[in-house]
Amino acid sequence: MKVEELSELIFVYNADSGIKNALLDGAHKVLSPATYDCNLCQLTHGAFLEKRVWRKFRERYTLPMKFLHKDEFRKEYASKFGHRFDFPLVLGTTHSGLEVVVNKEELNGLSDTQSLIALLEARI
């Protein structure tokens, strides 16, 4: 997939939106990181804040990026795509629809933010 084919990247976290969920997720990441179900969250955020290296990566790219929790994604894309994907994942918007850029298994196999950035740079 080439960058000129993509009009946007959509990052979908395997977590629900809302302050209550954010606080519970943050506590879960700190207390039991091995059982936390969203490696995308782990790669891009600390317990409560976005990681600096990830923010710098986002800010230097001109390709638009959208960040959604799984409940937000299902609401926004339910009519076409909502039940087809496992979360977390990274999607790309193309002229023909949504394409998987990084799937759940690939995200779960990454050990650090730099690995995610390298994978994205290789694919976009």
Explain this structure.
The protein is of the alpha+beta class and 124 residues long. The chain has a single domain, classed as Glutaredoxin, CATH 3.40.30. 43% of the residues lie in helices and 19% in strands. The protein has helices spanning 19-31, 39-44, 52-60, 70-77, 104-109, 113-123, and strands at 8-13, 65-69, 89-94, 97-102. A hairpin with a 2-residue loop joins strand 3 (89-94) and strand 4 (97-102). The radius of gyration is 14 Å and the shape is globular.
Present the secondary structure layout.
Blueprint: E1 8-13, H1 19-31, H2 39-44, H3 52-60, E2 65-69, H4 70-77, E3 89-94, E4 97-102, H5 104-109, H6 113-123
**How many domains in all?**
1
Please write the CATH class name.
Alpha Beta
H-E string: EHHHEHEEHH
Q: Round the Cα radius of gyration to an integer and report it.
A: 14 Å
Coarse shape: globular
Major β-sheet annotation: 4 strands, mixed
- Oligomerization state of this entry? single chain
Lateral strand order in the biggest sheet: 2-1-3-4
Estimate the mean pLDDT confidence.
81
Which structural category fits the helices and strands? Answer: alpha+beta
**CATH architecture assignment name:** 3-Layer(aba) Sandwich
- Counted beta strands: 4
- The amount of helix comes to 40-55%
User: β content, as a range?
Assistant: 15-25%
Question: How far apart are the first and last residues' alpha carbons, in Å?
Answer: 6 Å
CATH topology, by name, is Glutaredoxin
If helices are DSSP runs of H or I spanning 4 or more residues, what is the number of helices?
Answer: 6
Low-confidence stretches: none
